[in-house]
């Protein structure tokens, strides 16, 4: 039997070729299908039936509101009466529920109708998606009264609409907005979700309005204050036309080039847009060379391991030491991080059960202790050369060690205080940090912005946004794209260990089963780069759906970062 998403809602598919699904893994580069694609889905719904019961009115309203993006919610408002018909804001929030469930309707004590269903997440009016915890539910109350014709109508309700996962999948698209890193040499994705039909206009409006609150202190923008969009973005022959208000003219020449770079990267993530033409009050914007800024600054690197007590790189199933110094094997190295500098020949390594942090340079053939602690967690490099770590028994603080060997920077992180720190990882453009915490037995993953000076010195960690809320345990985590991390964890008590993708601003998804006995992971770019470490000391790599042995006899694995 086919699952019934809505009773009256009719899905008319212009062409049956192909299907789409909610992007849940990998970098967000292309949006498929586009609003003008052949498999565009058109929705329609029926108005209220004469003599309908309160339950039928509420069900019909749910159907019609789900189809409202196609008719500007005109049919949905026919189920409402009084101030509800004019005041209801359908896009204030979009509440997404699993395909495996249908909204349940029950009578309330005052004669109204209560609708409840499990929750996958909620989209706010700014296009920001917040994932729900695994046991979360959506509940909404509807009050009804008879109108002058004796027909039941809804007279009180919450703003927003309900959408099944399938319909959200069909009607909305992931839309990364791109802002500037601290040094303006890279772009930082701020993931939003917009209706497919109006994506270009809403994406530009979102970009001009600025980043999400949690991210704003970690990124910059070249958009002059007060700049707005004069009209809807139009797309013709794969070219998006963007006309900005006169405030854009206050930007310097360099800022204009960066502004166009932000607009281009944001709009060309949409597959039907190949180029962007920017005008100001109808006249071409005077812009010189536009920089090609990376959204995920990461190259190709060999896997680094600890083998026989020393740092080594892997090739052809063989681990080769990066430094020919017998004293290193006596240090008791237990973990390693790899820097981006000097073609990944700079390392940070933990020793003596995490009480010592070493800095090592294979190119300079030197090494030294740069920090000590009681039990430091896995260190993480940023693209500026700083090494971040912190105590497992956390007092609300992280430590960043500079690349020049100077004094470390202590970063206050009040929201970590009292929690056990498990893992950290800095994003490739160095603007964000993911932190895995054990908070009284509940394991959570939080992403926060890193505030920096223009030359990359970290100065603060912002308030976090939570990801992967449907996981009950997270063992290890690694960035695989500008918006996505791979996580080794469990989806519920008693469940087996699994691999998952966690989106910063989107829903998580399963990547399948890890290699038997996997205790740690590392990654570079996309799912194909994931490597695992087993409890038997075997490093394995993921290719498609198959795991292959990379090298044996190792105790730690790492790609740069």
Q: What count of structural domains?
A: 3
Q: Could you tell me the number of beta strands?
A: 41
CATH architecture of the largest domain: 6 Propeller
CATH fold-level topology of the largest domain: Neuraminidase
Radius of gyration: 26 Å
Question: Treating each run of at least 4 consecutive H or I residues as one helix, how many helices?
Answer: 7
For the record, what CATH class of the largest domain applies?
Mainly Beta
**What is the CATH superfamily of the largest domain?**
TolB, C-terminal domain
Largest sheet: 5 strands, antiparallel
N-end to C-end Cα span: 48 Å
Description of the molecule:
With 561 residues, this protein is mainly β. It folds into three domains: 10-171, no CATH class; 174-284, no CATH class; 304-558, Neuraminidase (6 Propeller), CATH 2.120.10. The longest helix is centred in the middle third of the chain and has 15 residues, at 253-267. The two termini are 48 Å apart. The model is unreliable at 1-39 (pLDDT under 50).
């Amino acid at each position: 039997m086919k699952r019934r998403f809505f009773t009256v809602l009719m899905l008319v598919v212009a062409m049956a070729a192909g299907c789409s699904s909610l992007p849940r893994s990998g970098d967000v580069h292309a949006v498929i299908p586009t609003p003008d694609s052949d498999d565009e889905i058109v929705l329609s719904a029926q108005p209220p039936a004469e003599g309908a019961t309160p339950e039928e009115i509420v069900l019909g309203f749910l159907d019609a509101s789900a189809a409202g993006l196609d008719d500007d919610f005109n049919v949905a408002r026919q189920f409402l009466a009084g101030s509800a018909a004019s005041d209801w804001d359908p896009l204030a929030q979009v509440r997404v529920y699993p395909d495996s469930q249908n909204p349940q309707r029950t009578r309330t004590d005052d004669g109204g109708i209560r609708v409840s269903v499990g929750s996958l997440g909620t989209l706010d009016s700014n296009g920001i998606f917040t994932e729900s915890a695994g046991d979360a539910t959506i509940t909404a109350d509807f009050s009804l009264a008879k109108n002058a014709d004796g027909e039941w109508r809804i007279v009180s309700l919450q703003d927003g609409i309900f959408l099944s996962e399938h319909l959200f999948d069909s009607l909305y698209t992931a839309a990364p907005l791109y802002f500037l890193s601290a040094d303006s040499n890279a772009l930082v994705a701020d993931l939003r979700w917009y209706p497919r039909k109006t994506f270009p206009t809403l994406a530009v409006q979102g970009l001009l309005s600025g980043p999400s609150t949690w991210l704003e202190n970690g990124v910059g923008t070249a958009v002059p204050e007060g700049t707005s969009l004069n009209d809807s973005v139009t797309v013709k022959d794969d070219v998006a036309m963007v006309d900005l208000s006169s405030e854009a003219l206050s930007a310097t020449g360099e800022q204009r080039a960066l502004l166009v770079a932000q607009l281009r990267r944001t709009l060309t993530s949409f597959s039907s847009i190949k180029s962007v033409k920017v005008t100001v009050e109808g006249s071409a914007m005077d812009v010189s060379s536009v920089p090609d800024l990376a959204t995920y600054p990461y190259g190709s690197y060999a896997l680094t391991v600890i083998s026989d007590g020393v740092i080594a790189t892997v090739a052809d199933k063989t681990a080769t030491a990066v430094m020919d110094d017998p004293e290193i094997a006596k240090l008791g190295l237990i973990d390693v991080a790899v820097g981006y500098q000097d073609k990944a020949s700079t390392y940070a390594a933990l020793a003596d059960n995490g009480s010592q942090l070493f800095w090592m340079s294979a190119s300079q053939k030197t090494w030294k202790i740069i920090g000590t602690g009681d039990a430091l967690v896995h260190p993480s490099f940023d693209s500026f050369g700083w090494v971040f770590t912190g105590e497992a028994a956390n007092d609300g603080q992280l430590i960043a060690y500079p690349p020049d060997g100077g004094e470390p920077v202590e970063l206050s992180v009040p929201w970590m205080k009292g929690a056990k720190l498990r893992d950290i990882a800095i994003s490739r453009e160095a603007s964000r940090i993911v932190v895995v915490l054990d908070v009284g037995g509940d394991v959570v993953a939080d992403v926060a912005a890193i505030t920096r000076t223009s030359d990359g010195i970290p100065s603060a960690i912002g308030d976090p946004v939570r990801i992967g809320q449907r996981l009950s345990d997270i063992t290890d985590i690694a960035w695989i794209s500008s918006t996505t991390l791979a996580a080794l964890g469990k989806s519920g008590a008693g469940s087996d260990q699994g691999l998952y993708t966690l989106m910063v601003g989107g829903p998580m998804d399963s990547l399948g089963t890890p290699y038997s006995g996997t205790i740690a992971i590392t990654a570079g770019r996309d799912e194909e780069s994931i490597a695992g470490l087993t409890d038997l000391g075997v490093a394995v790599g993921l290719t498609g759906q198959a795991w292959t042995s990379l090298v044996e006899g190792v105790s730690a694995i790492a790609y740069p970062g």
